[in-house]
């Protein structure tokens, strides 16, 4: 019988299962083959199965190489280190068809440490560190050679450690294979595959894992280099931005220095400083006095918020720059004396860090120093001018008024029109008289007025202002320096010294009487005028002057009679004597009723409407009586 080799070839060609190769042997036995013929058939079957196994092994190897190539290709495309490491252990688990896979990286100071895992269940295993030479992984890292074991715990080839063995047992791992990740002669880590059953890893598995580890080491190194490059580029960008910011800060500082220098040299003011700093720093800038009032602002229409006021107070309390975010303040200091504060508001362009850098803080503090110099200079000028104005006011109040031409020239030098009308204010101020006097000088200067201290009282005059408004200016202006309520007597407006040389003295006397009456009546901390007191002021004033009272109530009528030769004062006396009856008044004066009516209309134009109201009427009658007595 001839052996049917073709049948076995057909089975090989058809990729038949191993059991199908028994078919030709059964057919030979059924055909009555001799023992020799049966042996030849079985031999042919054995050869066919060997060929099948070789083909199967080559297909498997081809598949493994294809998978390995695909893995290498995938690893080459990954640039993130964590993604590369995770892809390595995932591929290792797939290629070896293992239960778990994991990878450790070398730490020169503390040994190997677990970086990524696939299929691991316990946290203890993930946190395991493997010292050099300890366990299978430690031996792989130390010798740079692959090692495997079918059952790790009883394997005595390795140096065991209780914590490592405990982690392995806790995970249920039995068989382990580990291969080194090599870069040249340097081990950067170890790649593992493991099973939870006793199942040895063959040479093919070891070769496959070694090949994967070779590609993995290159991918890890590339990813590391990319990360280091990215970090270096990011650091370079940060350094570049810092250098750019530093250059910008230097340029801003130089610009600010030039601007501030020009302001000082060219005689600029605080407004110029505020405007320049706002332009340089791109933010709102405000200079405040110690009471929180605005001296100058780059945004006049924008008020200071409560938070900004709190930051300003903190900077004054600390005597240094304070604030955070986009609100800062620095004190304006002249030595140890605080003159105010400089507030820096939100920036027009947001900065990356949001905080004030050292360069900008120095610009702000330098601007505050220049502001202090300008405020000191302005104060010195104001004090010098105030002394000159005070001396002139003191001369006017003493009755030693210079001749009109000299007075006009002195007014011109002080840029004051002494022909205007003035309100006169006398203030009783407790506390330090020198300090209050300085405050009074400042208040007067800011309103084109004059101030002086006479007989322990502060005297101020203000042009083109009524008595009450002038008194309120003084109360508000002296409140802080006095530290207590300020009581004020006010008079006027009275003609200026060029128009009427003695008018200011008369206004001064009236204001003093109003102040004395206010103190007697217990009206401390208030503004009191002759209109407030009426004839009561004449009765209560410590140095009451009837003539002054008559002038304050009837002056225009008396002056009109003197200028026109009329009889308005006589008409008023007769009018009141006749109980304000027009007919009886006309009869007593021997004139027509219309004449009386015309005279009373003239009085109304001179004294103003309301002079016949009960309170004013009483004051006018008293003035008429006093006028008769004084005359």
UniProtKB/TrEMBL annotation:
This is GAF domain-containing protein. Pfam families: GAF, GGDEF_2, HTH_30. Signal peptide: none annotated. Keywords: Coiled coil. It comes from Nocardioides panzhihuensis. Residues 80-230 form the GAF domain. Residues 226-253 form a coiled coil. Belongs to the CdaR family. InterPro entries: CdaR-like_regulators (IPR051448), CdaR_GGDEF (IPR041522), GAF (IPR003018), GAF-like_dom_sf (IPR029016), PucR_C-HTH_dom (IPR025736), PucR_C-HTH_sf (IPR042070). Gene3D superfamilies: 3.30.450.40, PucR C-terminal helix-turn-helix domain (1.10.10.2840).
């Amino acid at each position: 019988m001839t052996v049917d080799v073709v049948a076995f070839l057909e089975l090989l060609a058809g990729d038949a299962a191993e059991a199908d190769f028994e078919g030709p042997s059964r057919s030979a036995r059924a055909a009555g083959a001799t023992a020799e013929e049966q042996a030849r058939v079985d031999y042919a079957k054995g050869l066919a199965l060997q060929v099948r196994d070789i083909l199967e092994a080559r297909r498997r190897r081809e598949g493994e190489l294809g998978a390995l190539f695909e893995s290498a290709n995938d690893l080459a495309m990954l640039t993130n280190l964590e993604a590369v490491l995770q892809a390595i252990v995932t591929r290792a688990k797939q290629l070896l068809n293992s239960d778990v896979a994991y990878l450790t990286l070398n730490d020169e100071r503390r040994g190997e440490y677990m970086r990524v895992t696939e299929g691991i269940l316990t946290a203890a295993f993930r946190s395991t560190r493997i010292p050099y030479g300890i366990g299978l992984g430690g031996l792989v890292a130390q010798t740079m050679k692959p090692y495997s074991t079918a059952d790790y715990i009883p394997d005595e080839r390795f140096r065991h450690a209780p914590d490592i063995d405990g982690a392995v047992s806790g995970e249920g791992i039995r068989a382990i294979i580990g291969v080194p990740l090599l870069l040249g002669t340097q081990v950067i880590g170890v790649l593992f595959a493991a099973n939870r059953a006793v199942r040895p890893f063959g040479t093919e598995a070891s070769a496959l894992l070694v090949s994967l580890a070779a590609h993995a080491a290159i991918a890890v190194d590339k990813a590391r280099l990319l990360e280091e490059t990215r970090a270096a580029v990011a650091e370079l960008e940060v350094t570049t931005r810092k250098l750019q910011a530093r250059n910008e800060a230097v340029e801003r500082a130089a610009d600010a220095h030039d601007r501030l220098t020009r302001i000082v040299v060219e005689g600029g003011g605080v407004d110029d400083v505020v405007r320049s700093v706002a332009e340089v720093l791109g933010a709102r800038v405000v200079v405040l006095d110690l009471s929180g009032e605005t001296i100058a602002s780059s945004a006049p229409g924008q008020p200071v918020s409560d938070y900004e006021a709190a930051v300003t107070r903190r900077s004054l309390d600390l005597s240094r720059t304070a604030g955070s975010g986009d609100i800062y303040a620095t004190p304006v200091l002249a030595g140890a004396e605080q003159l105010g504060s400089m507030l820096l508001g939100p920036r027009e362009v947001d900065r990356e860090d949001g905080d004030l850098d050292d360069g900008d803080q120095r610009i702000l503090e330098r601007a505050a120093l220049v502001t202090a110099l300008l405020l000191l200079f302005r104060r010195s000028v104001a004090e010098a001018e105030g002394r000159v104005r005070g001396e002139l006011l003191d001369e006017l109040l003493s009755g030693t008024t210079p001749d009109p031409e000299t007075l006009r020239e002195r007014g011109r030098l002080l840029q004051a029109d002494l022909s205007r009308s003035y309100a006169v204010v006398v203030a009783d101020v407790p506390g330090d008289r020198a300090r209050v006097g300085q405050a009074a000088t400042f208040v007067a200067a800011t309103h084109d007025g004059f101030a002086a201290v006479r007989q322990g009282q502060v005297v101020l005059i203000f042009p083109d202002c009524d008595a009450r408004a002038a008194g309120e200016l003084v109360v508000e202006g002296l409140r802080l320096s006095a530290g207590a309520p300020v009581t004020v007597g006010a008079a006027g407006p009275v003609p200026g010294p060029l128009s009427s040389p003695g008018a200011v003295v008369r206004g001064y006397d009236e204001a003093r009487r109003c102040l004395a009456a206010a103190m007697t009546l217990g009206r401390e901390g208030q503004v009191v005028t002759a209109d407030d007191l009426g004839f009561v002021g004449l009765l209560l004033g410590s140095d009451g002057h009837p003539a002054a009272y008559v002038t304050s109530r009837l002056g225009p009528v008396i002056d009109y009679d003197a200028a026109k030769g009329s009889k308005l004062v006589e008409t008023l006396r007769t009018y009141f004597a006749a109980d304000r009856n027009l007919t009886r008044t006309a009869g007593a004066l021997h004139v027509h009723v219309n004449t009386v009516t015309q005279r009373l209309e003239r009085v109304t134009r001179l004294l103003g409407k309301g002079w016949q109201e009960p309170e004013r009427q009483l004051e006018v009658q008293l003035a008429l009586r006093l006028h008769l007595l004084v005359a």
